[in-house]
Write a structure and sequence with these properties.
mainly alpha
Length: 190
């Protein structure tokens, strides 16, 4: 028996949808348990003749205004996506050429022929900025490695000195020696 194909052949409604009516909910003593009861099954004098869904309706805007609003929203989404992509790639925001292209698209004009040249310049600048960031990052990593190496050598030197002191029976536990070692560490760390 094929359960998948037989489920689509059944007629009728599932869940009792055909038996449900908001008019019956108005008279039900448990009407508060139904989601949407205050809008779809209003009861009371104050609700008679009132538009209970006034907040969800559009205030008589024309089709042109709606189309313009939609176009602006799409451009805003495109701009946000371009910003996010640029941040992900180079850490920069949308370029002036992209902003200019969006503005001309919003006005309905053709894109300026010089915009391609400007876009190429902006891409070159972005590439140069990325290279600078990469070189700065490499320099920082190099400094960190150098600093770690210096600290490691200092620890090895101190360990060697302590082993020598123990071997020869010198006492390095005096307060003056400890203070001297602290000062030396501070000088090396800075």
């Amino acid at each position: 028996m094929d359960l998948v194909s037989s489920a689509g052949r059944r007629g009728g409604t599932r869940g009792g949808r055909d038996q449900f009516d908001w008019e019956e909910v108005k008279n039900d003593k448990h009407r508060e348990n139904y989601l949407g009861h205050s809008l779809n099954a209003p009861v009371g004098r104050w609700q008679e003749g009132k538009d209970l869904q006034w907040y969800a309706k559009d205030k008589g805007t024309s089709k042109e205004e709606i189309a313009l609003k939609r176009k602006e929203e799409l451009l805003a989404v495109k701009k946000r996506e371009a910003d996010m992509m640029n941040r992900a790639l180079a850490g920069a925001t949308a370029t002036d050429a992209v902003k200019e292209a969006m503005r001309t698209e919003l006005e309905g004009n053709d894109i300026d022929p010089g915009a391609e040249h400007n876009a190429q310049e902006v891409q070159d600048e972005d590439q140069a900025r990325r290279k600078r960031k990469e070189s700065e990052k490499k320099k920082k990593e190099k400094k960190k490695k150098k600093k770690k190496k210096k600290k490691r050598k200092e620890r090895e030197r101190q360990k060697h000195e302590e082993e020598g002191a123990r071997k020869h029976g010198w006492s390095s536990s005096s307060d003056e020696d400890k203070q001297h070692q602290r000062r030396r560490r501070r000088r090396l760390d800075s």
